[in-house]
């Protein structure tokens, strides 16, 4: 017998499943199960079917701009996520973080008939983050060898290095403290002077200006005698095309960061996910979700 209000071989009606699915967007599985008076396995099975039915095969031929990111979802566990930067929808989720993880995605693109003419754009957020990490390492190196009076000056200088000059607090004398820390650490001072160059690079109006600015910064960095600056100059040279592509393709990392934040929020709500078959459909539907603590 075929029933219009329930699918074949299901122990619940379509109305019940829709209601449970709506509740599961802001609530955890256990909270929904307790609220509806059913077992957790019943609720857990519904999101596995619904997002796969709606989102498992997105129209890849319409993709224009994507991001590729890896997200830690547990101890030594990673997912590779590919969001559509225009719609915010996640179009692929793969377990792992190696290049092979994306092989199924490239295969699906070819089968979809997508005309791939990709331009790789370096993520300015990650470029700046890597430089700040190197700057912090440079600060810590002489800090270990510093005399006591110098140690007091260098201690706590990391937050000052991260701030833009216009954001230093005059009431707390932060500009003076930063100047003193740079005076005691010449390699750090040389590297810090390049921090402003990086901000100015992203503000260049066109590719030609950005190319000239990049060249003007690489040579002095290599001649500075600071090993970290030399390595960073070599890195910029290797990724030159990706850095300059930002001038033609102004890509915001906001959608990617928003997706990552929602995934991490859902992981915290559930105290981690052990069932990837359940977790991945959640990610595919995450652009429609809102998270809230309920209970």
Task: Give an overview in words.
- By secondary structure, the protein is mainly alpha-helical.
- The model is unreliable at 1-6 and 291-295 (pLDDT under 50).
- It is built from 14 helices and three strands.
- The chain starts with 13 loop residues before the first helix and ends in an 11-residue tail after the last helix.
- It is 57% helix and 6% strand.
- Among the domains are: 61-121 and 251-273; 135-248, no CATH class.
- Strands 1-2-3 form a three-stranded antiparallel β-sheet, with helices on one face.
Helix-strand layout with pairing:
Elements: H1 14-24, H2 29-36, H3 40-55, E1 69-74, E2 77-83, E3 90-95, H4 103-111, H5 124-145, H6 148-154, H7 158-162, H8 174-184, H9 186-202, H10 207-223, H11 227-238, H12 240-248, H13 254-269, H14 276-284
Antiparallel strand pairs: 1-2, 2-3
The percent range for helix content is: 55-70%
Q: What is the number of beta strands?
A: 3
Q: What is the strand arrangement across the widest sheet? A: 1-2-3
- In sequence order, what are the helices and strands, one letter per element? HHHEEEHHHHHHHHHHH
How would you describe the shape? globular
Q: Number of helical segments?
A: 14
Rg computed from alpha carbons, rounded to a whole number of angstroms: 25 Å
Mean pLDDT: 75
Which oligomeric state applies?
Answer: single chain
Which runs of at least 5 residues are low in confidence (pLDDT < 50)? 1-6, 291-295
Report the β-strand fraction as a percent range. Answer: 5-15%
Structural class: mainly alpha
Distance between the termini: 40 Å
How is the biggest beta sheet arranged? 3 strands, antiparallel
Domain Transposase IS204/IS1001/IS1096/IS1165 DDE: 118-282
Protein name: ISL3 family transposase
InterPro entries: Transpos_ISL3, Transposase_DDE
Organism: Tautonia sociabilis
